[in-house]
């Protein structure tokens, strides 16, 4: 069964190897250190993989834009150009045009720190193909507060302007790392909200997860919540877990009315511990097979890829 995965950090991992933070240069085609290398994506039947541009918070402000450009360059020179089966998704309708054997690659931005206060840089990111933007990581920036910022403020005036520009460009606004107040500000403004990698707070009280009111608000907007595979977001204060533990979150989201709004956002290459039998993208069909024990084939196809098609690709011009 085909898969759409809305979040991975392969670009950052490859960038680290290129900058010699690691001794080994990672090759997207087959590096075993990459949870989302090409071979793993093929084996796991991942049809569309989202690749996040993410700048670590300790990078100096004046260097953040350069780091973002490096990751975009990696997206082209390491992922797209050497691998003709990888196809750059520049418009949402491109997903429907993928042929057998082709894998769509979607460029996203995790944290507006990359463009600072410069809307010209943001517009350039749109032109370069960024299709989804999370305003923050866990910290605060010029757009909003993240989930770990103690003051818990919402969107700034600048952040609201960014959301409006996302709307105009058919770009998703990702709520996964936002403070609770910023989440509600986004829900008032965004045409196309998404939680690219979040789970249910009621089952695992981590600040990165969404509470019941947030979940219900997303579903009322026909927005997707893509479950994340990192054990501490699945099982409270644990570094391990099973596919059954992840399915508990899917069950809970379904109970809140989200059977048509659930997807997958693995966070592969950004996580350091893993669910048993779901350690990389090659293992995706293990999750599918277990889901088929509890849900109809139609419902599982929805989780795997069709919900995203129906809620975004079929909606955004």
From TrEMBL:
What is the phylogenetic placement of the source species in the record? Answer: Bacteria, Bacillati, Bacillota, Bacilli, Bacillales
Q: Which GO terms describe its biological process?
A: proteolysis
Listed name of the protein = Membrane dipeptidase
Which molecular-function annotations from GO does this UniProt entry contain? metallodipeptidase activity
Give the Gene3D superfamilies listed for this entry.
Metal-dependent hydrolases
Q: Output the CDD domains linked to this UniProt entry.
A: rDP_like
Name the species this protein comes from.
Ornithinibacillus hominis
Query: What domain of life?
Result: Bacteria
């Amino acid at each position: 069964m085909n898969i759409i995965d809305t979040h991975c950090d392969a670009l950052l991992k490859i960038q680290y190897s290129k900058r010699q933070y690691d001794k080994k240069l990672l090759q997207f085609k087959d590096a075993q250190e990459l949870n989302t290398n090409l071979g793993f994506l093929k084996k796991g039947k991942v049809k569309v993989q989202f690749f996040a541009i993410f700048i670590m918070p300790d990078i100096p402000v004046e260097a953040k834009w350069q780091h973002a450009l490096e990751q975009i360059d990696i997206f082209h020179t390491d992922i797209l150009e050497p691998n003709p089966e990888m196809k750059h998704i520049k418009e949402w309708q491109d997903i429907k045009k993928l042929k057998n054997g082709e894998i769509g690659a979607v460029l996203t931005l995790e944290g507006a720190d990359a463009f600072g206060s410069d809307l010209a840089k943001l517009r350039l990111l749109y032109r370069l193909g960024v299709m989804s933007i999370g305003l923050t990581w866990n910290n605060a920036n010029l757009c909003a507060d993240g989930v770990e910022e103690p003051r818990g403020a919402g969107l700034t005036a600048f952040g609201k302007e960014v959301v409006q520009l996302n709307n105009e460009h058919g770009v998703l606004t990702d709520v996964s790392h936002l403070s609770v107040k910023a989440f509600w500000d986004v829900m008032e403004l965004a045409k196309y909200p998404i939680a690219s990698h979040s789970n249910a707070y009621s089952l695992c009280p981590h600040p990165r997860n969404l509470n019941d009111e947030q979940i219900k608000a997303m579903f009322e907007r026909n927005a997707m919540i893509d479950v994340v595979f990192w054990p501490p977001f699945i099982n409270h204060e644990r570094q391990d877990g099973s596919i059954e533990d992840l399915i508990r979150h899917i069950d809970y989201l379904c109970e809140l009315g989200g059977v048509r709004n659930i997807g997958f956002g693995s966070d592969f290459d950004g996580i350091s511990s893993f669910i048993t039998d779901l350690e990389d993208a090659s293992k995706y069909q293990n999750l599918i097979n277990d889901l088929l024990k509890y849900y109809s084939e139609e419902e599982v196809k929805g989780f795997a890829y069709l919900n995203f098609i129906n809620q975004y690709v079929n909606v955004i011009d």
